[in-house]
Amino acid sequence: MQKPSSQSEFEIIRRYFSRSGLAFERNGVALGIGDDAALLDLPEGKSLAMSMDVLVSDVHFPASADPRLIAHRALAVNLSDLAAMGAEPLCFTLGLVLPSSDEAWLREFSEGFLPLAEQYNCPLIGGDISRGPLSISIQVQGLCDKSKAVLRSGASVGDKIYTSGTLGDGGIALLILDLGSHLGDTFKLNEAKPSAACQQFFEEAYYKPKPRVELGIAAGKLMTSCIDISDGLYGDLNHILNASGVAAQLNLAKLPFSASARSCVDDDNRIQAALYGGDDYELCFTVPADKCAELEQVAGQLDISVTCIGEIVAKSGMSNGISYIGDNALIEKVEPLSFQHFNSTAAD
Ligand code: ADP
Ligand code: MG
Predict the structure, then answer these.
(1) Residue 36 class from Cβ within 10 Å (0-12 exposed, 13-18 middle, 19+ buried)?
(2) What is the pLDDT of residues 174-210, one digit of tens each?
(3) Domain architecture of the chain: domains with CATH
């Protein structure tokens, strides 16, 4: 097995990971980097939530991207999975495959984790390094109250469907940043070149998605199901529907969009980006009708926008999955695309 030489491997770990400020102390982490394994002490009544994402260069991010942004995104998308379970971040581990040990790259890369690691009190507790084509595996660990995690399987008929934040920005960013949009040739911007402000907005949206950790923790008890939107609302909501054995009615007119998405992309394309684009990392969740007011109040206190976009309905005959209400002209354009996108698998 090829590895960087031991000297440089230990030096890399020491300089960029164990001594970089990322491996800070935290309650519950009894032993961090430095031994054969880290040790975690779980508080009574808590379950350990774990989630992992592998990001491969030039598949999930351009190898030439700013290493700070690569690190930020890698941790953000993992924290988003904890958010979707209603879990509180505890710590993370890092598996790093590197083509060479480029000092400047490593420094910036390790610094890129700091803002989110500190914000969510989520230190680095271990990992591994090997030589090969650049790829980054992060595993996050989190805590949730025993038997209180928010699963995909709890949605019931009559529950309202919500999303946090705005949708479609991740999908539009893939096109604007030329990262391989899978939305097809008809998916276009209004103008060939977006304004500098839009360019910057979508770059942030892609590399710095906001994991909705606070919302998952504070409002998880009001949710009957939850998922984070990594593949697009259509596919991810369908995961909830399949796990819960129900169907959904979505109101296309209610989908929330950013001002930048509204200015750069027309109506149909924006809806396509929301439904099939992915990379939004907002939470899609269901709430019983009598808990919606409380949910909206909790989200308001956190200053996180939430929008009711539809309702869970019974599965009936052939029409399972998602049906649409709202503007008929839009529905006629959007509905056939579901079939087109249903079997398309983005790299995830
Ligand atoms: P082992 O040979 O037992 O796997 P390593 O030499 O790979 O040990 O790692 C030594 C210590 O450094 C371990 O505690 C490990 O978790 C930590 N470590 C290795 N790589 C990383 C990394 N990329 N980030 C953080 N910690 C790391
Ligand atoms: Mg090792």
Answers:
(1) exposed
(2) 999 988 888 887 888 888 888 999 999 999 999 999 9
(3) 9-145 (3.30.1330.10), 160-332 (3.90.650.10)
